[in-house]
Design a protein that fits this description.
Strand 7 and strand 8 form a beta hairpin. By secondary structure, the protein is of the alpha/beta class. Helix 1 runs parallel beside helix 4. It has an eight-stranded mixed beta sheet, with helices on both faces.
Length: 199
Amino acid sequence: MNNSTARRVTANINLTLDGRYNGSGGPGDLSAIIPYATTEVARRHLDRIWQSATTALLGRLNAEGFMGFWPSVAEDENADPRDRGYAKWLVGTEKVVLSTTLTEPPWERTRVVKGPVADVVTGLKNTGEGDILVNNSASVIKALLSVDLLDRLYLMINPEIAGGGQRLFEDGLPASKWTLALQETGELGEMAMVYDRAR
């Protein structure tokens, strides 16, 4: 199958001004992320990421965290409609979880896959239709950036410097050029941006 008919691989992640997806307290330190997660701009961005996606690709930690949160939002009639729309999509869509430790799928409509990220994504790209969305799983996004397999980046940039924590764009990534497809700024100074890989 040639690239013109292969599925697009997209990724969604929230970053601080210094490019971090968590703070100095470790993976659970989202103190510079959470205050901006429910703004109007962030919710419109959340609504945007899944509209053309038919597969959610997750790392194990995110899959387990999402499983504990989103199904209840999907059932909550009082939840913000955009949050609920995303939650219903996530519950109902095909989910692929990359893990070397899980033996059973942690969720309905989920399969656990072992193997290099690049191989798994290449296989997914050539089967089915619709975008493959890497949902906030930094380890998967980093792996795809390292082999130039990401086609679109949905970024939320939050107006804080974390000063510590893990960075998304680490030294050693291959150089690449991106085109800005959309930009929106919120009242708190948070920015939603959509970048497409220029090939």
